[in-house]
Amino acid sequence: MTTPQQAQEPRPAKPEGRRSTGSVKAAAGLLVKEANRILKKYGGRIAPEPAQAIRASVDALARHREAKQWHQAEDEAERLDELLHQHASFARKSPLRETIENVGVAVLVALGLRSCLYEPFKIPSGSMMPTLVAGDHIFVNKFIYGIQVPFTTTVVGERWGHIARGDVVVFRYPIDESEDFIKRVIGLAGDTIRVDGNKVSIRRSDDAEFEELKRNKLPEKCRDDSGTQQVPHCELFEETLDGHTYVVRYKTNLDPRAGARRVGEWTVPEGHLLVMGDNRNESHDSLAWTRQVEAVAADGLLSVKDLRDLTDEKLFSLTRPDDVSARGDASFDHILYIADHASDAHGLELEIWRQPVLGSEAVYKALTAGEGRATTFAALIEGDERLGSKGNAKLRERLLRVGADIPAITLSAGEVAQDAVFRVDPDAVMRLRCGNAVCRTPGRVAEKVAEVVERWGRDRGQDARQILDGDNTARYSQHWTSRSATAETFLERRYSKTGAEPASPAGLVRLRAWRAPDESVDFVRDTALAAAGSSRSLARQVVNEAGDDGWLVEDEQKFTYVRADAKSLVAFSLECGRQRCASDRELLALVRSVEGHVPSVSKDRTRLPELLPPGDIPGYKEMPQLPVSERYEYDRIRLDATVRDVAYSLGVWVWLRPTEGLAEKLAALQADIPNAKVDDSVASGAITGDAVSGNGTQYAFAVPATEVVIRMQCSVGLCPTPEVARDLAKRAYQKAHDASNFVDPAAERPQPYVPRGNVKGRAERIWLPMSRFWLPIR
Q1: Nearest to residue 639, comparing CAs of 763, 761, 415, 475?
Q2: Annotated catalytic, 183?
Q3: Residues 6-64: tens digit of each pLDDT
Q4: Whether the Cβ atoms of residue 158 and residue 145 lie closer than 8 Å to each other
Q5: How far is CA 107 from the centre of its chain?
Q6: CATH number assigned to the domain covering 120-289+754-765
Q7: Was domain 293-340+646-748 assigned CATH 3.40.1000?
Q8: Which of 183, 365, 735, 760 is catalytic?
Q9: Where does the UniProt annotation place the signal sequence (predicted)?
Q10: What is the CB neighbour count within 10 angstroms for residue 494?
Q11: Out of 127, 286, 343, 573, which one is annotated catalytic?
Q12: CATH 3.40.1000 residue ranges in the chain?
């Protein structure tokens, strides 16, 4: 109800002149709205007669507005305003209050827009160059992935839009959520991302294989933030991911040993994302994020030194089979040691004789005498299903073409390896030894032989180490026997009565001698006998003061004596024509002279010519020496293989303060151990049994002193007896009593993923600087 004071309060004078139609419309609308609000809310406090007058004025003003009688409407609005001032001023808002309410509404609207629709951001660094540079101002669409409830990680309406690979998103930094980061989405939940330097590959959750992201190198140069200076050692690539095409940049001068080269594999857990900056080598992103935690390290319980002390193997590699995401729990660790085990089955060896002085036929016979089966190259191929008539036609055709240059081949199959002896051209012989893990079938032998022959055909001057390559299933160490100077290893002296070539072998005396030959004196002996058309089974053995490894062969033209002295590493073949040696007695007398010089020759390589000087053959003159290669005819490459085989492995699992408790955890492990039984010799209540695969031994035990449970599984190759596994378990138990051996209280652990609820929105437009105003963010 109004008071007399309110009724008598003077009003300001009405301004002269008429208002514009638009002003009258606006004022009339506001007055009607205000009058209706006051009547509804405060009608009981206004006297009936003034209240009725207000209602009548509202109706009249409505009629004037509807009839567009704006002069009358203006007068009625003045009357209504006066009525409200006289009778309802207590309910009208003061200018201050109205201003405050308007500002509050504006703030709420702005907050709503900022929280749910669009928010401006400023780029603080160059981690997203060249897409975004430091100082760029951008708009982020916060509605596209659903509405995020302010000050929470709850997202409403997420189904409206899904985050896609390749999107540029703004999110709260998982390590410190008070900071906002901007990066590009590379992996979604279930994806596995593999990074190897500047190669990024993705295996989606429903794919079996990795797919490398497509990239094209761009001719443009990298620029700094200002866009004026060229950045050295930097390349730009256009990358494509699920329909998004954008530009990334890589540094080209990074030293992998310095750790700047990014390498790793990450599997994205449910409800998370993996992100990377476009400035790949200078971006603090998922690949670099770590957190400080108390972490266990299983290699502190059993180290490589422990394995070397307690097993027969010496070279080990350490891996952690679980991926990065599985090691998010720092109170758990799982390691696997795999021994680099020497494997004869993967070994390779190649021996080459080039233009042998005893003839390639003699060398071939010595290599194949009594061993293997003579065959053809085509027969090796036909025996392999992969290369048969229905097999790999292109490979078969190539092998047959190469095999046409191999006139003879003999194959010997052993328990560990296969030996192939073959002639290449008329003047070269090779022996290839190929382990059964590499050459499982005759066809595989044929492939390896063809590889050797092809390289030989390209350059016959190559030595063996340039011709033979290892297999990619093993790591190899080379052992090369080089080609020494011929003069230091071999000597040939020939004599005749005239010093000229005799008409027949009957008039020739010839000595061929070898000192420390790389192919062994025994092999030289057998080759010399083969060159004489004989062998040890056919020749007559001669036993004298020099030993029992002397052999006599005779024919119509000459006598041939062959001796190998394993102690002095000297072998020789002495041919004496029947014109000089009418009987074997004369030959053996000459042999004794040669053998008398062997001790001095074995000590000094320069004394080889002293084996048969001209004075030992009176009446005979030395013939000119035949040309020989400066380098000795024989060399060999042996590739010793080591393989990483789980048959020679040790797995260690460790749990620090397991949530279910020590006893419960140990009981759960016992249930998984085949043939489990208690072995208190390692630790009280320790459980032992067979490895899960059945080939080996495993242990599980708890260490209450440090609140840890340990499981260890040793394969049969590394632990051939249970005693070896027991010694390893005891060592681990002892070291587990000191937490400093395996617990790091301030360890750095990867925290590579962004929780979905941390994502604020998608970066869409640049609005500053003006030179790039409203450009879309690719």
Answers
A1: 475
A2: yes
A3: 333 444 444 445 677 877 787 788 888 888 888 888 877 888 888 888 888 888 888 88
A4: yes
A5: 54
A6: 2.10.109.10
A7: yes
A8: 183
A9: none
A10: 21
A11: 127
A12: 293-340+646-748
